[in-house]
Amino acid sequence: MATPDVSSDDQRELWTRVRARLKASVGEDVFASWFARLELEELVDDLVHLSAPTRFLCSWVQSNYADGIVEAFRHDVPEAARLQVTMRVNGQARPRLAPVAEVVPEAPAAQQTAPVAAVPATPRLVRDNAKSGDALSGSAIDPRMTFDSFVAGSANEMALGVAKQIANAAINNAVTFNPVYIHSTVGLGKSHLLNAIAHAVGQADPSKNIVYLTADHFMYHFITAVQRQSALGFKEWLRRVDLLLIDDMQFLQGKSATEFGHTLGALLTGAKQVVVAGDAPPRDLEMLDERVRSRLSGGLVVPISTFDHELRRDIVQRRADQVNSRFGMQFPVAVIDYIARAVVSHGRDLDGAVNRLVAANQLTGELITVPLAEKTLADLIRARDAKRVRIEDILKIVSRHYKVPRNELLSARRSRDVVRPRQIAMYLAKALTSRSLPEIGRRFGGRDHTTVLHSVRKVEQMIKDDLELGQEIELLKRMLEE
């Protein structure tokens, strides 16, 4: 088969279109977690070669999203049939067709016990071959997410102040509040603060052993350690950290959640700093053991509120200034005011609004004006009138309506009085949130995405067959959207 003739400019445009298809297919949250840091390296014959910043991301994308990515490419490159994801090392991708399991070279023995945080811009995890028998790597830290790039306002000033205090204390080998739990809905800056803490501490003291992990990454490492019979080494490795940052806590569950509880207790006993972020308060994390929730609640719990107009405008202004310094592209004051007033969902949508206008200007040549913003941002603006429904809200409403405890909805019980409300809750989660089927499954006690799909189809059929049930579910939807 001939190699597709794709120039570097065409390749960039192709990747932009593919990314847009993937985001529309999987939703913004999943895209940000798994696709945002991928880069297109080359197209060779029927092979799509992408790169990612961590071995975990390479493995996860290759295992879970290969078919979807290839399908997204086929719209423009019909011959695309295979995907290879390799890891970027120092900004360069490893050669294509290199086995994913070998993308990180063995370090010399003298380097294996040195903290990877010695590179201040990107603190990483240490390798301890004698203990774990496996090279462990952390979730990638975004170099753009620093305290300097964080836009502060009344909604997040407490969280920012706490984060800076944690960083300063860690630099001076002290612990202030422990553990610290930061929570908010999606896109309000939790991950940014965790990354900023890691940057600040790593830059000030490269000897610190800093561990930043998403909950998915924590589960992956724990399950891998169990499979390789190196769980004890994994536990000891975690307990030697100076600063542990866990993101997306709501996705931690099962034995991994239990292990996190043990690790948390050991770290607190040893006065090591722990910072956790999630999309709900600790008391609402039903998938976690009560002792873990109690431990988190007993520390400092810091909420981030929904952004007000002033903070939204400051964020848009900051992004517009960055665009101006990079491209020499001016955003009129009226456009900045319009975005801040019209896009009220969260910070990522504000970033996306600016990016869309830049793309529209570059692709069409139209000046950046309010009419262009109205046309380009129509879907974001329409979304402002719809309340953002969370899975936690669905669990509360369904639990109250059917008089089934929330922990029963997340349990393995199969009795009819639990199964039917659970299926309805999954159906509502798919209908009213942007979460993917695997995400919904994780939030419902670690179920497989096929279980969620079965529940959704089952409820859809029941609605067709039972008019009264259909009206009941419509009532639940109205209650959730009010």
Summarize, please.
The chain has about 475 residues and is α/β, with parallel strands linked by helices. Helices cover about 55% and strands about 10% of the residues. The termini are far apart.
Number of helices: 22
Helix content: 40-55%
Proportion of residues in β-strands: 5-15%
Assign the CATH topology of the largest domain: Rossmann fold
Could you describe the largest sheet, including whether it forms a barrel?
5 strands, parallel
How are the strands of the largest sheet arranged? 6-7-8-5-9
* Rg: 23 Å
Number of strands: 9
Structural class: alpha/beta
Tell me the domain tally. 4
CATH superfamily of the largest domain: P-loop containing nucleotide triphosphate hydrolases
* Shape call: globular
Q: State the end-to-end CA separation.
A: 56 Å
CATH secondary-structure class of the largest domain:
Alpha Beta
CATH architectural type of the largest domain: 3-Layer(aba) Sandwich
